[in-house]
């Protein structure tokens, strides 16, 4: 039937039907993408010198680099060497930079020779066979270079008017004086800023500030460890007491080198204030001392008596709130402390006893004026202001 209809080419319907039949017999063309092989990136190997290895590199280069890497691993880690052993080290320039960094460059009577002797340890130097009289020029000549007069003047500080005979040979005599000055400055500053804190607690804070760990922390960040002479300045071999003694000797030298006594006191006070006492900034002052748990309640009674309350006035603890008291995990208690029906403080804890201890601690902070809401300490005080305030 289809063949007969296809033979009729005159009638328009037959022509249309024949075209539809022919189209149904024709295979439909499909446009499918040909499979493409995945791209494999070139093989890359680590390269110490140039980052990565390209596929176009010759084969011997990879073996050479592997051999160099293996030799470097067999050689072991780089030995720890102080900064002064490098060829570009200049002790004169480093001392000049340290003096400007410490604010001692324009101080009357202070010079590089003063700073050089302050950072010299006599006993260690003699034990190592190094004399304490080794000057800056000798060390520069030993490294193969020496500064001329013009260049030395450009990096040198003000020439000291102090005779060489009156200068200390090393810091052996300056260390005890410097430690005493630092302790005196810290005690006076805390007594002025924290007048309501008991003296024994302030002494704990002073002992922490003047400890070897605290002083060595300051000296290390000031770069004094690399300038020490006569000792092993490698970080792993340098004890904390050596860096602490260097900073203490520096404070003493700032006072003793000045011909004017008031100017020397101010210079020594600035070193202690700017580099040591500023550690108290943005820190909880209550963490600088420790109060035993058995001592807190008697200390609170003594502080209340000093504040004007009767000594026999009883303290009253009240339970202000609780949450999930039967649960060992989610329990929370809030206890308030009252005296004469006046609210003093409140504390939170997992148990009522812990909340009571925290309440006593908060009351001590309020009486000592060491709460978080207190005004910041004044780090712009001069030595004259500090002395006049205590008088």
TrEMBL record:
Swiss-Prot/TrEMBL GO biological process terms: RNA processing
Region (Disordered) residue spans: 147-170
Primary residence: mitochondrion
Single GO MF descriptor: ribonuclease III activity
Family annotation (InterPro entries): Ribosomal_mL44_DSRM_metazoa (IPR044444), RM44_endonuclase (IPR055189), RNase_III_sf (IPR036389)
Annotated Pfam families: DSRM_MRPL44 (PF22892), RM44_endonuclase (PF22935)
Domain Large ribosomal subunit protein mL44 endonuclease: start-end pairs: 161-253
Domain Large ribosomal subunit protein mL44 dsRNA binding: start-end pairs: 300-382
Compartment(s) where it occurs, according to its Swiss-Prot or TrEMBL record: Mitochondrion
Skewed-composition ranges (Polar residues): 153-164
Keywords: Mitochondrion, Ribonucleoprotein, Ribosomal protein, Transit peptide
Family assignment from sequence similarity: Belongs to the ribonuclease III family. Mitochondrion-specific ribosomal protein mL44 subfamily.
Name this protein carries in UniProt: Large ribosomal subunit protein mL44
Organism the protein comes from: Macrostomum lignano
């Amino acid at each position: 039937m289809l063949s007969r209809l296809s033979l009729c080419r005159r009638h328009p319907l037959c022509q249309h039907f024949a075209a539809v039949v022919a189209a149904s017999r024709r295979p439909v063309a499909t446009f499918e993408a040909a499979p493409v092989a995945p791209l494999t990136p070139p093989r890359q190997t680590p390269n110490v010198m140039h980052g990565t290895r390209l596929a176009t590199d010759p084969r011997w280069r990879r073996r050479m680099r592997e051999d160099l890497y293996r030799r470097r691993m067999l050689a072991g880690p780089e030995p720890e060497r102080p900064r002064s052993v490098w060829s570009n080290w200049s002790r004169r320039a480093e001392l000049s930079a340290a003096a400007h960094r410490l604010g001692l460059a324009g101080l009357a009577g202070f010079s590089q020779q003063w700073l050089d002797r302050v950072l010299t340890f006599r006993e260690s130097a003699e034990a190592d066979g190094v004399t304490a009289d080794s000057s800056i020029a000798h060390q520069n000549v030993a490294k193969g270079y020496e500064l001329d007069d013009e260049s030395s003047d450009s990096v040198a500080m003000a020439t000291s008017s102090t005779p060489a005979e009156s200068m200390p040979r090393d810091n052996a005599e300056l260390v005890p004086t410097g430690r005493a000055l630092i302790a005196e400055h810290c005690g006076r500053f805390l007594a002025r800023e924290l007048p309501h804190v008991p003296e024994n607690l302030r002494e704990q804070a002073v002992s922490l500030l003047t400890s070897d760990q605290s002083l060595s922390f300051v000296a290390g960040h000031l770069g004094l460890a690399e300038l020490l002479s006569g000792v092993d300045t490698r970080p792993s071999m340098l004890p904390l007491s050596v860096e602490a003694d260097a900073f203490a000797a520096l404070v003493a030298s700032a006072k003793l080198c000045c011909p004017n006594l008031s100017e020397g006191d101010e210079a020594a006070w600035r070193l202690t204030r700017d580099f040591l006492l500023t550690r108290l900034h943005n820190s909880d002052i209550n963490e600088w001392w420790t109060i035993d748990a058995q001592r807190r309640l008697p200390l609170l009674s003594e502080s209340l008596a000093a504040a004007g309350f009767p000594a026999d006035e009883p303290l009253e603890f009240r339970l202000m709130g609780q949450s999930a008291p039967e649960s060992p995990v989610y329990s929370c208690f809030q206890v308030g402390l009252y005296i004469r029906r006046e609210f003093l403080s409140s504390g939170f804890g997992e148990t009522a006893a812990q909340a009571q201890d925290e309440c006593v601690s908060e009351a001590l902070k309020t009486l000592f004026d060491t709460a978080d809401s207190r005004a910041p300490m004044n780090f712009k005080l001069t030595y004259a202001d500090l002395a006049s305030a205590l008088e």
